[in-house]
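Methods — Computational structure assignment.
A single polypeptide chain was analysed. Its primary sequence is given first, followed by the predicted tertiary structure written as structure tokens.
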Amino acid sequence: MANFIDAAGVEMQMKCLAVLIAWTSLSGQSLMILPAPPLRGGAGLCQIMIAFPAAVQRAAALQWRVSTLGGAILSVTVSSAAEEVGKSLVCAQPRDAQVAPGNVYRCILFGGGREISDGPVAVVRYKAAEDRNEVTLRIDEVLGATAKGEAIPFAEVGLTIGVRR
């Protein structure tokens, strides 16, 4: 567990469930979750970031599933960096009776033939449950595609975020 002090001087604790940065052994691209912990009963934000090594073919489209434990996802929106290269984001909750509303979204980032640049691709707004001290976010079932339609696999990434008091 690591302690951090935010801009307001509030101590917060974050512990990673999985490695914050996930690399695939096939091509080296990675996804990251950069959190902004919520106050108890309030909403928090996370940026979903992407990074490609210099010699790797970049994705022109990306799909993933984002889920939460100990809270609810309020929205998933496209980042300004992804919009600047002509990308749109569509996210929807699956129609699965076994999934609690707000806990899982499936997302597709697409549009045009331009490659996705290193940096933020989406922003997840979430809320911790009133009785929880932490929220776990997980991004899995990630797949990228080049402008030619070739698949680019990504590893999953997860993070547990402490709720500020």
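Note: The first strand starts at residue 2 and ends at 5.
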